[in-house]
Design brief:
About 35% of the residues lie in helices and about 25% in strands. With about 170 residues, it is an alpha+beta fold.
Length: about 170
C-alpha cells in the first residue's frame, strides 16, 4: 500500500500567519494587537472575566479548513468578551441587548475566515485555495489555550485589546 505525500506549507507560513492576523485585526476591526510572552499569556488566559467572576471567561474557537497547494486549517481561539467586541466592530454599531449566539458564531467565523484568506493570499497570491465554511464552537468550561502544547511553533499567542488570543495553523499530515 502506498501513501501520498501531501505538499507542506512554505517555511515562512508561521510568520505570515501572525502578520495576517495583525492586519485583519487592525485594519478591519480597529483592534490593537501586541505580542505576548507565554507566562503573560497563561496568566491572562486564566484571569476571571472582568474580575466579577471567580471563573475565567468562556472561550470560543473557530477553524477554517482549506485545500490547495497545501491543505490544513487556521484556528483562532479567543475569550467570549473579545469575540463580542470584535463582532460589534464588524457590524459597526452597538448591540443593545445580549448578542444572540448565532450572531456571535457567524461573526467569529467571519473573523477566522478573513484571517485565513489574508494569510493564504500572502503565502501564494498566484495559487487558488478552497476554503471550507468556518466551524465555530464554544469550549468547555475551564478550557484555556494555555493548557495546550506551548511549544507549537505554528501558534501565535497575542493580546488583542487586552484579551489573550491564540491563532495557529495545522497542516494536513502527509
Amino acid at each position: 500500500m502506498s501513501s501520498v505525500k501531501l505538499p507542506t506549507p512554505p517555511a515562512e507560513a508561521g510568520a505570515l500567519l501572525g502578520r495576517a492576523f495583525v492586519d485583519v485585526c487592525e485594519n478591519s476591526f480597529f483592534a490593537f494587537v501586541e505580542t505576548c510572552p507565554p507566562e503573560k499569556f497563561a496568566a491572562l488566559a486564566s484571569q476571571p472575566e472582568g474580575g466579577a467572576s471567580p471563573r475565567p471567561s468562556p472561550w470560543i474557537k473557530a477553524s477554517v479548513g482549506f485545500t490547495g497547494t497545501f491543505a490544513g486549517a487556521v484556528e483562532v481561539a479567543l475569550p467570549e468578551p473579545l469575540a463580542i467586541n470584535l463582532v460589534t466592530a464588524l457590524v459597526g454599531e452597538e448591540i443593545e441587548c445580549a448578542m444572540p449566539e448565532h450572531w456571535l458564531f457567524d461573526g467569529v467565523g467571519e473573523f477566522a475566515n478573513m484571517i485565513c484568506g489574508a494569510w493564504l493570499t500572502m503565502l501564494s497570491n498566484a495559487e487558488a485555495f478552497e476554503l471550507r465554511p468556518p466551524a465555530v464552537t464554544r469550549m468547555n468550561a475551564g478550557w484555556s489555550p494555555a493548557s495546550e502544547a506551548a511549544d507549537d511553533e505554528r501558534a501565535h499567542r497575542l493580546v488583542v485589546n487586552d484579551f489573550p488570543v491564540r491563532i495557529r495553523f495545522r497542516a494536513l499530515a502527509g
